[in-house]
Amino acid sequence: MGFARNVRSLASANMKQTRLFDEWPEAYDRWFTTPIGALVKKYESELVLDLLKPGCGEKILDAGCGTGVFTFDILCAGADVIGLDLSFPMLKRAGEKLKGYSFEMVLGNIAGLPFPEASFDKVVSVTALEFIEDGTGALRELLRVTRKGGCIVVATLNRLSPWASRRKKEAQEGHPLFGQAIFRSPDELSSLAAMEGLTKTAIHFQKDEDPERASKIEREGQRQHLNTGAFVAARWEKP
Length: 239
Prior knowledge:
By secondary structure, the protein is α/β, with parallel strands linked by helices.
């Protein structure tokens, strides 16, 4: 299942979408080193880990792993992770950052995962679904490769958040990524599966907020269980 043997799986992917992410590894990582970006990463990662609850020795698929920003925290919990992504430059950067961890890379498409049924204890996908029009089909694939009793966690951009309004404006102005994004509400994300799931949101502050004040806003938003955070995550258990 090694990286080299899976390069040919790229042929089945949407090539235009693949190239969409190839120029972004450095900028994507750099955003999370800014004061507000680091805070965003902290709260997003906390939410993902709370829902996924990765365990030592568990085999987990990170579908759409990008540069491994969220993969790192899952690995630190002791899980064995296979990171799948459409973009070779994104995967290459993830491999460089996660060298020495129990991490394997696969170049491939969430729409047609190159794994047998029930291959993983758990599956996670963070900020990839917004670039997949057929969300129901993508979730079906994630469920297919998850074992019975395992869980699937999917996080994406929330349509109900002010961040989405700003991103849609940037899309109209020609932003190459947001122009391709599909924003879903918590209910729309939850409805992609035929079974009941749990949804939560994070990032209740704005991009230009003072980081210290942003932390207070975030704590209050979580206390009130608001559904308008910029980051929405859902969890399903496979029966």
